[in-house]
Design brief:
Keywords: Oxidoreductase. InterPro entries: ADH_Fe/GldA (IPR001670), ADH_Fe_C (IPR056798), ADH_Fe_CS (IPR018211), BDH-like (IPR044731). This is Iron-containing alcohol dehydrogenase. The protein has 15 helices and 10 strands. A hairpin with a 4-residue loop joins strand 6 and strand 7. By secondary structure, it is α/β, with parallel strands linked by helices. Helix 4 packs across helix 5, helix 7 packs antiparallel against helix 8 and helix 11 crosses helix 12. Bound molecules: 5,6-dihydroxy-NADP (NZQ) and zinc ion. 5,6-dihydroxy-NADP binds next to helix 2, helix 5, strand 6 and helix 7.
Length: about 375
């Protein structure tokens, strides 16, 4: 097992009816920026619950944070915070709203040009504005981690960053909020969380027995509840297990003591930036090709995954190959198209474009051993056409 430090200060409040605790979680002297997305919270009653549990607090609303939140929009919120003398932010939404709020929290007190936080990947370790979240879409784990992904519209770049000062102070996760989610978003949530586990598990063996078993437990739970929850999001057993699996997939725990990959995400972000494809769907396109191209370095873990998750038998080679097929099958069950050509006709130059971008950024080798070099990126993207 590799050495590690585990730091996670987020107070996670999980379960039915927990939004009622909101007023006890927000600091007493808070003047709140209530940040939300395109308005789903008005239709499903979450807005009303929030407002009725914040009586007595001064609130300024900031809506319109879009899916794949944009730097340009978020900077408008920074202006509002400064003008209104806000001292606390409440994010009510999915990964996009929560990620957007993390960037706002970082940018408000940043000494310099906030675009540098993204383009120079500056980690925020102090001076962030405190914030809490109410999660409305289980998927990203953003409610219990310190990372975020923001798109710069002007340059069509989707960039990830974070820092230890960007953990939410609290996150309320009430599984009943998923009742109003469209099926497509539920499917996305399952596949995003599944791939988060794969990024931290499907590397090379480091004798981290417990981390492997926890990771496998999350994968098995997602396979167990995923197909059902997208059909019956009001089933509390399915909803609660789905929501907790998504949080556990990316709250830092399973990544301790093991290497992590993240190349599927880095390549996938480019497909969202270029074509606007939903985040999870980009992972379903890229992941399987990456496992094939990086087969030799991942074979040991692929074989373990195949035996423990899908009960496959045979040689390491056979089991590892079949495990990739089973993964694609699961993505299909979860409503994913797994080829880029199913999303756009304009794909033939995608690999060269992405390789060019990575080159400009100096990203010469991604993945757990930096072996996903630019020629491998090209092969992975071309195999995904
Ligand atoms: O904007 P509103 O009107 O709220 O509608 C949203 C949005 O259209 C809707 N929605 C959310 N909760 C709902 C609901 N509709 C009905 N009922 C509800 N309860 O769903 C749509 C998608 O929301 P979004 O927040 O974009 O989805 P998701 O949670 O999948 O977040 C995706 C973003 O997170 C980033 C992705 O790159 C992407 O930008 N990620 C963040 C990570 C992190 N911080 O750790 C890790 C992930 O790998 C990911 O990269
Ligand atoms: Zn993801």
């Amino acid at each position: 097992m590799l050495n590690f430090e585990l730091y996670n200060p987020t107070n996670l409040i999980f379960g039915k009816g927990q939004i009622e605790k909101l007023s006890t979680l927000v600091p007493k002297d808070a003047k709140i920026l209530l940040a939300y997305g395109g308005g789903s919270i008005f239709k499903n009653g979450i807005y009303d619950q929030v407002i009725s549990n914040l009586k007595g607090f001064e609130i300024v609303e900031f809506g319109g944070i879009e899916p794949n939140p944009r730097f340009e929009t978020l900077m408008k919120a920074v202006d509002v915070i400064k003008a209104e003398k806000i001292n606390f932010i409440l994010a009510v939404g999915g990964g996009s709203v929560i990620d957007g709020v993390k960037f706002i929290s970082a940018a408000v007190n940043f000494d310099g040009n906030p675009i540098d936080i993204l383009q120079k990947r500056i980690l925020i370790k102090e001076n962030a504005m405190p914030f809490g979240t109410i999660l409305t879409l289980p998927a990203t784990g953003s409610e219990m981690n310190s990372g975020y992904v923001v798109t710069i519209e002007a340059t069509q770049e989707k960039l990830a960053s974070g820092g230890s000062a960007l953990f939410p102070q609290f996150s309320i996760c009430d599984p009943t909020v998923i009742a109003s989610l469209p099926k497509r978003q539920l499917e996305n949530g399952v596949v995003d969380a599944y791939t988060h586990v794969m990024e931290q598990y499907l590397t090379y063996p480091t004798d981290a027995f417990l981390q492997d078993r926890i990771a496998e437990g999350i994968l098995q739970t997602l396979i167990e509840v995923g197909p059902g929850v997208v059909e019956n999001p009001t089933d509390y057993t399915l909803a609660s297990n789905f929501m907790w699996s998504c949080t556990m997939a990316l709250n830092g725990l399973i990544q301790k003591g093991v290497p992590s990959d993240w190349a599927t995400h880095m390549i996938g972000h480019e497909l969202t930036a270029l074509y606007g494809i939903d985040h999870a769907r980009t992972l379903a396109i890229i992941g399987p090709s990456l496992y094939k191209v990086m087969f030799e370095t991942k074979k040991g873990k692929l074989a373990q995954y195949g035996r423990r998750i899908f009960n496959l038998t045979g040689s390491d080679d056979e089991v590892a190959k079949e495990a990739i097929n089973k993964t694609v099958e699961f993505f299909h069950t979860m409503g994913m198209d797994t080829k880029l050509s199913q999303y756009t006709n304009d794909y033939d130059r995608t690999a060269d474009f992405i390789v060019g971008r990575f080159e400009e950024r100096g990203w010469k080798g991604l993945g757990e051993k930096q072996l996903v070099t630019l020629d491998k990126v090209k092969s992975i993207v071309e195999m995904s056409y």
